[in-house]
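Researcher: Here's a chain I'd like modeled. Treat it as a single chain, no partners, no ligands.
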Amino acid sequence: MWYCEVPNGEPLIMEKGCLFCQISSGETDTEFLFDNDTLVVFKDINPAAPVHLLIVPRKHIRSINDLTEADQPILSEMIMVARDMAVQHGVDKSGYRLFINVERGGGQVIFHLHLHLIAGWK
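Model: Modeled as a single isolated chain. Structure tokens:
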């Protein structure tokens, strides 16, 4: 484990070698569509739909199975930010899908909690 400073100055526990920890801490050139002290949003590099965004907490949470009671506000914020991203991308009225893959058997490939927003089919 290692720590990363976020804009509010509080350290977050992060997993060494985790791609999404590296992205959320600004170690890559990933363009953020949204970012705050809790979350980042960016486009999926292998989109499954015309609009495919990833809503990722800065805190390293391995999967849904690793959530604690203290993580409830993070999940709530992920959903609210996803809703706002749908509006910004013009898919709120036509419809969109939100999902989280859990563990390898559930399709999780990167073991850092993230919410997919997919939409844009005609």
